[in-house]
Amino acid sequence: MQVPSLSRRNVAIFFLLSLGLLTLFHLKPYSTLTDKDWSPLHLDQSLTEPPQPHSTVQPDDASDQLPPPPPSYKEDQTPAPPPDACTDVDFAWLASDRKYWDGWGSKAMFMKPDGNFTRKNVYLPEGDSICVVVLLGPIPAKSSIKPEEHLGPMDSIVMTAIGRWNKLSIELKQHARQTNVYYAPVTFMHADIYYLESRTEYRSYFWETPALHYYRPYRFLSQNKLAVRKKQTDDPEPLLPLCDFRNSQHTTGSWMRKTEYQRTYPLDFFGMFGIDQEDHAEDNRLFVPDHCRPQYISIGQAAQCLLDKTVHVYADANVRRNLKAFASGNRWCNDHQDQACVCNDDAEKHEKWVTDPTVPLVINETWHADTRFYFSNMGSIAVHDYKTEISAQAARVDPADIVILGFGNQDIEERSSSPGHFASIFEDLLLYLTTEVYPTQTIVVRTPQWFCCGTIESTSWNAGRSNAFARAVRLTVEKYQDRVLLWDVHRLGIPDNLCVSGGTPYSKRNVLNIENMMLWSLLCDANSS
């Protein structure tokens, strides 16, 4: 009786061991897969996969305890950028969070100085930097245009930081992985309480072909504010260098109200308001560079700087307005309430130097400078090849000491001209001019307008397209040495300073004086070096 019992027990043990080995043999190892292409645009996935805990988020209070986000993605092949105010921001968590952002509406915010998220207002010492972030909802319609064909990001967003006394334009970058996230490290040089005003103009590269799509920008404000405080120190403020607009850092700045400028800089030339100072204020604001002191250059000083010089100008009506302001001693438009006076002089009877490229604008009678500007009105370089025309004009008039080029605005209006196409043509044209026509002369290249081009009153194309064309000009000029100078009027752009409401792409009248002061700084520094 005992043998069968042992036999049955052995059979049972053998069966269990066999079953265990069979299960172990066929069992596949479990691995957690992370979809590196995950985007908040896939809302069904975001609802089924809540964000993972993350230990670095510091809530404002116990009730604000946030679910930790998934680990940030590592950029394996892209070299790490230098650290800035946005380095420690966890963009992956921001994009995946569904407690404070529903994933649908657009949202702008100031991060904490340490890069962490907060719903509360943020405090920052004057002169420090902070990260601003925009989260965009789903794309309503996808474009078939490939990203690598463009000089701009997928979405066109206009952002302005607005305080009681100051305004500054902010250029956002698109995140490499979280493509609905835009961000920028921003330095705030002046004490104030700021909020972010943003406008999404176009999504999914539709800014490339604005004539085919309605211009219906979506405006939204930041969820929190930034209080910038003056630094508490007994040390005197360091004296900033005089502005040299050949340095790209010297072209960034804020627009400050005149009363605040007088209070902050009471002994500065621009703080002592008279006629000359009023000529450089637009909408009761002055442009204040972040990293340098603006140097006032009067019309007389500019004329003496250009003494006996001949200048060849190939540009559109924007530069014609710059020259007109110079020639009239800033007195061509004195009625600043008249929109036609401030924004549109196209219908006026122009001097002969405007219509005949062989007749110079002579700065001589008043300033005794004997400076001659030969102005040739130029259109789109994508539509018309101007090489032959410029060569003929250069041979027809007095030899040039200085050349001013202003291309791009007319090309922005052309539906068939993409930023990449324009960049290729402009690079070829500039190479031809610097080697074949003007091999020794100083050449100044003006960027396109910040916002181009007014098509119907109170509307326009978009800033995203203008940004891309301006970037094409900057990248081309960077390839040359000091002989080719960048006149970066695009940096002066904020919505308040433009004539879009008047149906033109021009800068308002007094902004021209600031643009001209940048030009005189470039030319006078070039002549003295």
TrEMBL record:
Keywords: Signal
Keyword Signal among record annotations: yes
Signal sequence region: 1-34
Biased composition annotated in UniProt, kind: Polar residues: 45-58
Region (Disordered): 43-83
Protein's recorded name: SGNH hydrolase-type esterase domain-containing protein
Organism (species): Syncephalastrum racemosum
